[in-house]
Amino acid sequence: MTARIRELDKPLVAVTLLLAAYGLATLYSAGQTDVPSFVTTIWLRQLIWLGVALVAASLVFRVSPRLLEWATPFVYAGAVVVLLFTLAFGTGGGTAASSRSWITIAGHRLGQPSELAKLAVVLMLARWLAERRAAPATLRELVPACLIAGVPFLLIVAQPDLGSGLVLVAILFSMLYWAGTKPSLLLLLASPAIGLVLAFSTIVWGAWIVALFALLLWWRPYVWEGLTVMLLNVAMGVVALPFWRHLAPYQQNRLLAFLNPDVDPRATGWHVIQSRVAVGSGGFLGKGFTHGSQKRLAFLPAQHTDFIFSVVGEELGFVGVLVALGLFAALILILFRIARRATDPFSGLVVFGIAGMLFTHIVENVGMTVNLLPITGIPLPFFSYGGSFLLACAVAIGISLRIAWEARQSGYAEH
Amino acid sequence: MTSFHPHLLDQRLRVARVVTWATLGVIVVAFFRTQILGHGRFQLQSENNRLRPITLPAPRGIITDRNGKVLADNVPGYTVALLPDDTTNLRATLRVMAPIVRLDDAAIDRVLQRYHRAPYQPALVLPNASFAVISALEERRVEIPGLVIQTEPKRYYPDSALASHLVGYVGEVTEQELAAPRGMPLRPGAQVGKDGLERQYDDSLRGSDGIRFVEVNATGHVVREAGAAPTLQPVPGTSLRTTIDVDLQRYIARIFPAGQRGAVVALDPATGEVLALYSAPGYEPNAFVGGVDPDYWRQLNENEAHPLFDRAIQARYPPGSTWKLAVAAIALRRGIVTLHSRMPIPCRGGLQYGNRYFRCWQPKGHGDLTLQEAITQSCDVYFYQLGLKVGLTSLLEDGNSYGFRTRTGVDLPGEIPPDFPSGTEYFDRIYGPRHWTSAVTLNLAIGQGENAQTLINMTQFYQMLASDGQARTPYLVHRQDRPGISLELSPEQLAGLRQAMISVVERGTARGSRLASISIAGKTGTAQNPHGPAHGWFIAFAPAEHPTIVVGAIIEFAREGPYVAPLVARVIARFLGADSTEAANFRIVLPTDTAPTPLQVLPGPPADSTHPDTIPVDTTRDRPHPRAR
């Protein structure tokens, strides 16, 4: 065991521990408000969760990639079942009170299965992609991968939790990329979604259809694939309006508030406005640890979960933000390195998928605090309060450490 | 070739790194823009978010009497206000508070109205809360977001009803007052003077409010006093030192016959300083502080005695015989008579004029009198003839120039001008040309007919008699310019009139009020009142040789209990420091020195049936009040 510890990927351990410490300190500060609430002592609970997470990570570290690969279908199936169960019996909780994202037994919220599902999708995609000798070259070959990600995606979006669902999409694309899928194919895969987004303006959408047609002529996929892509894009332009109407009002408002927070500053725009005011008033060095007035006076909403990064921005300023982003960048780059040096395609894909998942969380969560991205309720790794996600992150790091360790043992890393 | 060849992986890794760095780069730029470039703007927003200004009301200036004794004071009070973040919250919060502070729907609406007028200021809920209410609210502070309790100086009138008309009272500013243009804009919810000196000198009494910043959280809870923002201290209002002698005022209130309506005014004849101004019945000015109880307000307005009505400056009464001095002064000034002139017809109880027999108040008659004696005896027959001698035109002309048609200009709000004809056109207008006779002159000569004076006007006339014949504008705080009214009498003539008035007290109609140690000059009067018993007047000054005080008094319906002359005598005695116990024993019945209605001599249609005997006393009209809504 001691030998194993010495063989651990030290940078990853160091960065993870630093992020956990930084996150815990921020969570402690988030609880220091003028009107005490349950958030005040939440850091202690997070500390317990960190202990649990450490145990989970060390347990996962003992699982070899082969055992993991073998267990993957069961994990995936289990995740889908739990998601179905959640959809049927789930409860709302925390900042997403109206959705069914939680498994609750006898009044105790056990966790958010969507976090488990993210890992399950990473594993399942890795297994499916690793089995293939060549990278998927046609859209038809991508269908199984899309289904692997799509089933949990639909189940999670139905909760409804669009944010977590989009993380699955990001995982899918990052892993397809790492498996060697051509970017042009990925673009065609993404084109219906792009068409949907661009449908808000007929002219822009028309330009996109023309551009897509040109690309199809240039890349020359199978004719029926090209036709399908074109038809899907046209269909998206048609269904865009009904789809928009179908969105829940809070989802519409989030998108509208992203475009212009001042539309409704008291309600939907409130989060964005207050978060930007908090971050902006932090300035270069911040207002000092625990001294953020926006947070103290409860102007900052969800300061312990979705908007915890605003606390960093307000209290530790631009410097604190750079430190946090630097640590996150280090984490992602270390994971990239591990993925590159992994002994086998499955391991590499798993680690790259994990990197993609974490990076999506980081970019989306940090980006929305300064209105760079629309608000979605997805947590910031190691910072946001929440057991399930911390556990998922710890498991992910545990897997990554094992894979790094495997590579080092095999000497493959010395390549 | 597998797609996982290290060479291909290296290629993908490079792209992945570039994408990662680029994305993070965009994020860093966004944070740089927000935190470094936008810092100032967001810093300001953050401050605005949490700092709310709260008005620190300035204490009103203290009002004192001439010796520095306090008439209107400030005592610590508590106000309860809410600093809400929107209307729905405010309504809910008010509902939480309702059981503690007894709020009905109307009160809640008023609070909402105040909130809409100034949404970033605390909306006043209770202007004057008791300590019990404050502690009850403090206990439930967590449930009441935005609760602001502050100590606010509260008006207190130590003499309460004794000086209510004089000092006035304060109340919350009304919508109309807010809308009215003025030099310094009023703060909604401010306490402003509503009557009396409080209203007259409101601008200087009010001072200027300060501002204090409190830090609030997102739900409007006041978290703490903001240390960062400086507090602007309120500037207290200017204190007013009045000319009132509060001891005299209290004494008048004490000896004024209980349950009677009337008024007393005391002036310094040399300066016009108002030494006392009392109107009965009074009201409780302390009840108005911080919002009058609607029941009390209704009670005041429905009371037939109209306690809010200042009978010294807002009520007109026929001056009756007190006006005979005016006729005498006019006649002397015009050189028509001297103090020793006699009239052709001696008094045998009446005088026939035209088809009517104008009676004297003394049916037995006074015999042959000089002017001085006629004043002493208040002989109507003498003054009928004197009036005819002066002539209606001169009588009206000089009445106007003596100020019987204009306000005195006392520095109190709401003074009304007396009723007096501007000239003979008045009679043409009222009765039609040639539908009236010189008989109106006879009525005017004895202070009846088309003549109704305020107490302050009549007292000012006697102030002229008591001094050098020049009028001084009565004032309470700031000496006013002289109105330029003069009796235009020689000192000898003035002395003669004073002598006659001394005789009134020594042996004339007011002899019961004689004080052994002081010579008082005065004149009684009885104003006929078609609504009931006559109103009793007495206006006097003392010491008669060098007067230092003029006191005018009127008591409504005084026939049944006329203590007017002794009342005035006791006030004078008190002021001059004489032994008032002697005066206190006086209980005399005021002689009815008003002429009875003239009798028709010959049968037939009355020659001047349109002739009114009296002008009804105008005391019952409803005065529109600033607080009335």
Order of helices and strands of chain A: HHHHEEHHHHHHHHHHHH
Count all strands of chain A and give the number: 2
Distance between the termini of chain B: 95 Å
How much of the residues of chain B is beta strand, in percent? 15-25%
Radius of gyration of chain B: 35 Å
Shape field of chain B: elongated
What kind of assembly state do the chains in view correspond to? Answer: heterodimer
Q: What profile does the largest beta sheet of chain B have? A: 5 strands, mixed
- Tell me how many strands of chain B there are: 20
Q: Which two chains share the most extensive interface?
A: A-B, 52 and 43 residues
Strand content of chain A: under 5%
Please list the strands of the largest sheet of chain A in the order they lie side by side: 1-2
SSE diagram, text form:
The complex is a heterodimer of chains A (415) and B (629).
Chain A: H1 2-6, H2 10-30, H3 42-61, H4 65-89, E1 103-105, E2 108-111, H5 113-130, H6 139-157, H7 162-178, H8 183-198, H9 202-219, H10 223-246, H11 249-259, H12 268-282, H13 293-296, H14 308-341, H15 345-369, H16 387-410
Antiparallel strand pairs in A: 1-2
Helix pairs in contact in A: 2-3, 2-14, 3-16, 4-5, 4-6, 5-6, 5-7, 5-15, 5-16, 6-7, 7-15, 8-9, 8-10, 9-10, 12-14, 14-15, 14-16, 15-16
Chain B: H1 6-37, H2 39-50, E1 51-56, E2 63-64, E3 70-82, H3 87-101, H4 105-117, E4 123-129, H5 131-139, E5 147-156, H6 164-167, E6 170-172, H7 175-179, E7 191-193, H8 196-200, H9 202-206, E8 210-216, E9 222-225, E10 240-241, H10 246-255, E11 262-267, E12 274-280, H11 294-302, E13 316-317, H12 324-333, E14 350-353, E15 356-359, H13 371-377, H14 380-390, H15 392-401, H16 425-431, H17 439-445, E16 453-454, H18 455-466, H19 491-506, E17 521-527, E18 535-542, E19 549-555, H20 564-576, H21 580-584, E20 599-600
Parallel strand pairs in B: 2-10
Antiparallel strand pairs in B: 1-8, 2-3, 3-4, 3-5, 6-7, 8-9, 11-12, 11-19, 13-16, 14-15, 15-20, 17-18, 18-19
